[in-house]
Write a structure and sequence with these properties.
The protein folds into two domains: 181 residues, Vaccinia Virus protein VP39 (Rossmann fold, 3-Layer(aba) Sandwich); 41 residues, no CATH class. Helix 2 packs across helix 3 and helix 5 crosses helix 8. By secondary structure, the chain is an alpha/beta fold. The chain has eight helices and seven strands; from the N terminus they run ααβαβαββαβαααββ. The chain has a seven-stranded mixed beta sheet, sandwiched between helices. 42% of the residues lie in helices and 21% in strands. It binds S-adenosylmethionine (SAM).
Length: 238
């Protein structure tokens, strides 16, 4: 990909992610619930970051194992530190989500991903969905939490306002001040406030995701949660 997630992004997100991601705990809970009944207890955490999804999934599923995937060695190292108590139930691979070399791996019961697929353009997402479908066992689940592109300016303004307000509340709750909200504004983290197009963040609409997932061969394709321009999608391989 031409534009890249930077070390500075990693630092800011690692420090303030709990405030920047709207209802982060609720999203993690939903992802884990959707993966509770999969054909093989082996899950790929695509662009795992610090491993929050994997941590909760491994905690809930004592027989499960996870493959951590990220492009950043720092993020993978942070995830491995976080998951230390679950050794040897995880392994790690460093690769670019846009490459296809890693997509020959198979026999996953589930794939989960949060806040990463929007870095791919439309064609990249369609190709990813097709490849992930072939990597899953029959009955396997794909669960994605990510930014979406609102369909018009009204919905975009609403998403921008909701995101600002969610970060302000979380900042006060977690830090007792506007510290995280101020960084969020200074770093121009609210994608929905930017004039666009942005070379790094390229969310797609809900309708596009649903169409592309179905085209890729998934069934039970759905959006199960949406707030502040953040959505959780689910899809099952037949
Ligand atoms: C916003 S963080 C989300 C991390 C984690 N999934 C979470 O929700 O806490 C985005 C993650 O995607 C990774 N990433 C960004 N671009 C990538 C790429 N092209 N290939 C692989 N990983 C990438 C970053 O290193 C980072 O860990």
């Amino acid at each position: 990909m031409e534009a890249a997630w930077s070390a500075a992004d990693t630092e800011v997100f690692a420090r303030y992610g709990d405030a920047f991601v709207p209802h982060r705990r609720a999203q993690i809970d939903i992802v884990c619930r959707l993966l509770a009944d999969i054909p093989v207890p082996r899950v790929l955490d695509l662009c795992c970051g610090e491993g929050l999804l994997s941590e909760e999934y491994l905690r809930r599923q004592p027989d499960a194992e996870v493959l951590l995937f990220d492009g950043s060695a720092d993020m993978l190292a942070a995830a491995e530190r976080r998951l230390e108590r679950f050794r040897p139930r995880f392994s790690a691979v460093q690769a670019d989500i846009a490459d296809r070399g890693w997509r020959s791996a198979t026999r996953f019961g589930g794939v989960m991903t949060s806040l990463a697929v929007h870095h791919l353009d439309g064609a990249g997402k369609r190709e990813l969905y097709r490849d992930l479908c072939s990597m899953l066992e029959p009955g396997g689940m794909f669960v994605m939490a990510d930014l979406i592109e609102p369909a018009g300016p009204l919905a975009k303004n609403l998403a921008a306002d909701e995101w600002d307000s969610a970060v302000r509340s979380a900042s006060r709750e977690l830090y007792g001040s506007d510290e995280a909200a101020e960084v969020f504004e200074r770093e121009e983290w609210n994608y929905f406030r930017l004039p666009g197009p942005d070379p790094l963040d390229r969310p797609s609409s809900v309708a596009e995701h649903l169409t592309w997932l179905a085209e890729a061969g998934f069934v039970e394709v759905d959006v199960v949660w949406l707030y502040a321009g953040h959505a959780v999608f689910t899809a099952r391989k037949p």
